[in-house]
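Tutorial, part two.
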Amino acid sequence: MRLNIFVLSAFATLLHASAIPRDVSSANASITEWAGPLYDCRGSIMCSTLHVKACDVAVNTQIIRDDELNYGSASSRRPHLGACHGLGADFGCAILVEGNPKCVRSGNDLWWDYQEIRKNGCHHCGHKYWGKGCKTTIDYEPECRRIW
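Running the prediction step on this input gives:
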């Protein structure tokens, strides 16, 4: 019984420590940075129905692969939110930039974000968190025409 209490106590401490923002100080300023995971494999309820092949087609054929900041969140005023590809009907897989107006990415950045999300164990949907309140998202999309 003593071992179980020890394990539960250690687990609670670990959970508490991973959910607390930490201060990161530099010579110029002090900012608060989220100390949680940079990746997660969450998505919409339809995520498990995603055809990963559609995601691969979207990221490999529809993203403009250059270093121009062409992709951004809906409020960023960039020309594109991301890319989306559907198999058959319009339902498909989207790779998008989400967050505040300062969340912008190049096509190359978006492509690399996709690779990193997959490399971190996300087989269908997932997120990569970057910047302040910004993320790259892979998720089910019912209307691919909304993305481009």
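Confidence is low (pLDDT under 50) at residues 1-32. In part three we will examine how such features are distributed along the chain.
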